[in-house]
Write a structure and sequence with these properties.
alpha+beta; NE0471 N-terminal domain-like; Double-stranded beta-helix; 2 domains; four-stranded antiparallel beta sheet; 20 strands; 28% strand; disordered N terminus
Length: 357
């Protein structure tokens, strides 16, 4: 069937037994197969949570469409050969098609040679009181991997009050919070945990040495561009990270660099202190050390670092799967208190704040 549509968004709809094709008013078009449409009938999902209410075995093996009608307004009604009827919001179909190749998270942008002042900063009172400010700040956390608050109350565990408005605190063997020491080499935290903490907050209660932040994503992409074999080695050869003391024995096997199925950078896991003896021999071992050294050299370049003296009341939030953190040595006994967040909680908060108000 082919018909002209009166709906403002759709110019034309074509329906065959196996699919529908919607031509939108901007001349773009979307194709939806019959099986996908039957599987995603809104009647088969919980209206509040989106939870799927049917099983795959409940679906016809080869559902076939009879007709498509652009009614009621803003919707399309499909009738099936077995007598079923399904109604879909056009706005939902269009939004789904436009998001097929995108992520709900902000697109991460690598940085190099930037000052701390070039990242997102927000006053704590404004951040607490204004959801729009909190949304914008979290967006830049996702994009840049690093953002700052100022004038957070300098009270013990104030970091947990900030964390509660962002996501879910990740308790570790250190507890819900931890204190940092000066003179830490740059690292991503807890690579021996499975999964690793997604984000880290650091709240300055009293000033100490400078904090160091390094964009591991930028270093990884530099390595990929100049020595793809070395990059592939660090993405493909897993190694062991281990932490052990009298109370715990934590070990995880993972690659130092991680990419997603499309080859895009996903994570860096880097902490010299907790790498167990490499479980590699012969040619694999000979390939690994030079690649590891190249990445270490890139991460150590001053141009890739942001150094900043956190002042009492300052708080930094950064992506622990991307940003390496360390600190310079200091004779002053400052106090930085931190906690970890799971990534899904942060992105959930950003998605909720992004909904129309």
């Amino acid at each position: 069937m082919t018909g002209k549509a009166a709906d403002i968004d759709v110019e034309e709809v074509k329906c065959t037994p196996g699919e529908i094709v919607l031509t939108w008013q901007d001349s773009s078009y979307s194709v939806y197969t019959a099986l996908w449409l039957r599987d995603n009938d809104p009647a088969n999902r919980d209206a509040r949570t989106g939870q799927r209410l049917i099983r795959t075995v409940d679906l016809p093996r080869e559902p076939r469409l009879n007709a498509a009608d652009l009614r009621p307004s803003g919707h399309i009604t499909l009738t099936w050969e077995d007598g079923a009827v399904s109604v879909y919001p056009l706005s939902w179909l269009r939004a789904f098609d436009r998001s097929l190749r995108t992520t709900p998270h902000p697109t991460r942008m690598p940085w190099m040679g930037q000052a701390a002042t070039s990242f997102a900063w927000c006053d704590y009172a404004e951040w607490i009181e204004n959801p729009a400010s909190r949304e914008e700040w979290l967006y830049y956390v996702g994009r840049d991997g690093l953002a700052f608050l100022r004038d957070v109350p300098t009270q013990q565990d104030a970091v947990l009050k900030v964390a509660a408005l962002i996501g879910f605190v990740r308790a570790t063997h250190l507890g819900r919070t931890f204190d940092t020491s000066p003179g830490l080499p740059i690292h991503t935290a807890n690579p021996y945990r499975d999964p690793v903490p997604g984000f880290q907050l650091l709240h300055c209660l009293s000033a100490a040495g400078q904090s160091i932040f390094v964009d591991g994503m930028a270093a990884a992409e530099r390595l990929r561009a100049h020595d793809h074999d070395a990059f592939a080695t660090l993405c493909q050869m897993p190694i062991l990270y281990r932490f052990q003391d009298a109370a715990v024995d934590l070990v995880a096997e993972r690659t130092m660099l991680e990419v997603d199925p499309s080859g895009e950078f996903r994570a860096i896991h880097y902490d010299d202190r907790w790498i167990a003896p490499l479980p590699l021999k012969g040619p694999r071992l000979k390939k690994y050390y030079p690649a590891y050294r190249q990445l270490a050299d890139l991460l150590s370049e001053p141009a890739r670092s942001v150094l900043y003296q956190l002042q009492p009341g300052d708080l930094a939030l950064f992506d622990n799967t991307r940003i390496l953190h360390g600190s310079t040595a200091s004779s002053v006994a400052g106090h930085l208190q931190g906690c970890y967040l799971d990534a899904d909680g942060l992105y959930s908060s950003l998605a909720l704040l992004s909904r129309p108000r």
